């Protein structure tokens, strides 16, 4: 474990496995557990009340009140509070994963935001995507887990349900409360239950 310029606020409530690597300038806040072969970059803020296991965290990241297992977080990204990333979640750089967000077996590209109370499973999310509060990827049909693709520059409205397998193409938008059963064309707004095309976007 790298110890140079590492600050552990309360060693009595902090556990760090001997196999973990932590970069200089990183601060570990109370009630934090770092397990397995975790690698944490430089100048991060980890905790309080966080668990990180067998994961890689980039430089200048903030992990707050969250659980991260077998996952990767890119540089300058922030996670939490109360987020759960697991089973090869892969989050890019400059990305925001907010409160009560669960991500599993999914890739989130750079500069995207998933702010509030969402489930993203078996999904590829492009760059510069905004996923609104309450968004759910319905990836399980009772037999298999299906894939969802959200391309660059997409805006997902609050309380959208994406019923996999489905693809939201570049620059598209979904209205609040939309239930998306079919692929959304590029630069198109869809609304309703089930979602239908409302208009083309510039």
TrEMBL record:
<dbReference type="GO" id="GO:0006048">
    <property type="term" value="P:UDP-N-acetylglucosamine biosynthetic process"/>
</dbReference>
<dbReference type="GO" id="GO:0008360">
    <property type="term" value="P:regulation of cell shape"/>
</dbReference>
<dbReference type="InterPro" id="IPR011004">
    <property type="entry name" value="Trimer_LpxA-like_sf"/>
</dbReference>
<keyword id="KW-0548">Nucleotidyltransferase</keyword>
<keyword id="KW-0808">Transferase</keyword>
<comment type="similarity">
    <text>In the N-terminal section; belongs to the N-acetylglucosamine-1-phosphate uridyltransferase family.</text>
</comment>
<dbReference type="GO" id="GO:0003977">
    <property type="term" value="F:UDP-N-acetylglucosamine diphosphorylase activity"/>
</dbReference>
<dbReference type="GO" id="GO:0019134">
    <property type="term" value="F:glucosamine-1-phosphate N-acetyltransferase activity"/>
</dbReference>
<dbReference type="Pfam" id="PF14602">
    <property type="entry name" value="Hexapep_2"/>
</dbReference>
<keyword id="KW-0133">Cell shape</keyword>
<protein>
    <recommendedName>
        <fullName>UDP-N-acetylglucosamine pyrophosphorylase</fullName>
    </recommendedName>
</protein>
<dbReference type="Pfam" id="PF00132">
    <property type="entry name" value="Hexapep"/>
</dbReference>
<keyword id="KW-0961">Cell wall biogenesis/degradation</keyword>
<keyword id="KW-0012">Acyltransferase</keyword>
<dbReference type="GO" id="GO:0005737">
    <property type="term" value="C:cytoplasm"/>
</dbReference>
<keyword id="KW-0460">Magnesium</keyword>
<dbReference type="GO" id="GO:0046872">
    <property type="term" value="F:metal ion binding"/>
</dbReference>
<dbReference type="InterPro" id="IPR050065">
    <property type="entry name" value="GlmU-like"/>
</dbReference>
<dbReference type="GO" id="GO:0071555">
    <property type="term" value="P:cell wall organization"/>
</dbReference>
<comment type="function">
    <text>Catalyzes the last two sequential reactions in the de novo biosynthetic pathway for UDP-N-acetylglucosamine (UDP-GlcNAc). The C-terminal domain catalyzes the transfer of acetyl group from acetyl coenzyme A to glucosamine-1-phosphate (GlcN-1-P) to produce N-acetylglucosamine-1-phosphate (GlcNAc-1-P), which is converted into UDP-GlcNAc by the transfer of uridine 5-monophosphate (from uridine 5-triphosphate), a reaction catalyzed by the N-terminal domain.</text>
</comment>
<keyword id="KW-0573">Peptidoglycan synthesis</keyword>
<dbReference type="InterPro" id="IPR038009">
    <property type="entry name" value="GlmU_C_LbH"/>
</dbReference>
<dbReference type="GO" id="GO:0009252">
    <property type="term" value="P:peptidoglycan biosynthetic process"/>
</dbReference>
<dbReference type="InterPro" id="IPR001451">
    <property type="entry name" value="Hexapep"/>
</dbReference>
<comment type="similarity">
    <text>In the C-terminal section; belongs to the transferase hexapeptide repeat family.</text>
</comment>
<keyword id="KW-0479">Metal-binding</keyword>
<keyword id="KW-0963">Cytoplasm</keyword>
């Amino acid at each position: 474990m790298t110890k140079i310029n590492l600050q552990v606020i309360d060693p009595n409530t902090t556990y760090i496995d001997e196999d973990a690597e932590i970069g200089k300038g990183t601060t570990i806040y109370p009630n934090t557990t770092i397990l397995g072969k975790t690698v944490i970059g430089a100048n991060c803020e980890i905790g309080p009340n966080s668990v990180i296991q067998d994961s890689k965290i980039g430089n200048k990241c903030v992990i707050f009140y969250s659980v991260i297992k077998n996952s990767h977080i890119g540089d300058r990204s922030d996670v939490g509070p109360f987020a759960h990333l697991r089973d090869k979640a892969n989050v890019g750089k400059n990305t925001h994963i907010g409160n009560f967000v669960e991500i599993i077996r999914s890739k989130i590209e750079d500069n995207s935001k998933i702010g509030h109370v969402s489930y993203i499973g078996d999904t590829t999310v492009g760059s510069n995507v905004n996923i609104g509060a309450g968004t759910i990827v319905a990836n399980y049909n009772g037999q298999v887990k299906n894939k969802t693709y959200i391309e660059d520059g997409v805006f997902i409205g609050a309380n959208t349900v994406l019923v996999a397998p489905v693809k939201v193409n570049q620059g598209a938008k979904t209205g609040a409360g939309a239930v998306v059963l079919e692929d959304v064309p590029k630069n198109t707004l869809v609304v309703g239950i089930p979602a239908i095309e409302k208009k083309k976007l510039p």
